[in-house]
Write a structure and sequence with these properties.
Elements: H1 3-7, H2 24-35, E1 37-47, H3 53-67, E2 73-78, E3 84-89, H4 95-114, E4 118-127, E5 132-138, E6 143-147, H5 157-167
Antiparallel strand pairs: 1-3, 1-4, 2-3, 4-5, 5-6
């Protein structure tokens, strides 16, 4: 960044810090004790894939990286908006392992030059009645928000705000509610 950028008030964008994902296991304990909401063992990474052989190669490497740990299953899907999702399925009792796998996928995509296409990571939760919750990590913002789908195109906003208030000391919560985008039909939720 040069002097001219400073004079015009432009700033260099902050680099995302994927290490914020490692706060999710602590948040999972808070959710379990306060709301009886438990991890499902499913998480996902959403990104806009580039065209061509390089994109397919990086996706294959990311899948092998996660599957190489021996435990989780990895699925790749493309949603109706053209975004690619890596869905990692592991043990519901191993949130730390799931977060490590999601971190590895994000890191590999970032290292291969696909950082600009990374959108979010989601860790799935549910309660005994089947109510679903996703803790969404916004890659470019370095913040989380809760997403609680209650139907095909509806969400439980009250529950989302309850989770926000509960996890405020565990996670960096996205303060701008306009950025709490619904992830309708997100794999793993």
């Amino acid at each position: 960044m040069g002097l001219w950028d400073v004079l015009r008030g432009q700033q260099r964008p902050k680099r995302p810090d994927l290490d914020h994902l490692f706060a999710v296991p602590g948040a999972a304990i808070t959710l379990q004790t306060a709301l009886d909401v438990r991890p499902t063992g499913v998480g996902s990474v959403c990104f806009r894939a580039a065209e061509g052989a390089a994109s397919g190669s990086v996706q294959d490497v990311a899948e092998m990286l996660v599957e190489g740990t021996g435990k989780p299953q990895v699925e790749r899907s493309v949603d109706s908006f053209g975004f690619t999702w890596f869905v990692v399925r592991g043990s519901a009792d191993d949130v730390s392992g799931l977060v490590t796998d999601l971190h590895a996928v994000n890191t590999e995509l970032e290292a291969q030059g696909f950082a600009s296409g990374l959108l979010c990571s989601v860790v799935g939760f549910a309660d005994g009645s089947g109510r679903r919750l996703g803790l969404v990590y916004l890659y470019k913002r370095g913040t989380f928000y809760p997403f609680a789908p209650s139907g095909p195109q509806t969400r439980d906003s009250l529950f989302e705000r309850q989770v926000r208030d509960l996890l405020g000391s565990d996670l960096r919560i996205e303060p701008d509610l306009a950025r709490w985008m619904p992830l309708w039909g997100a794999p793993g939720l």
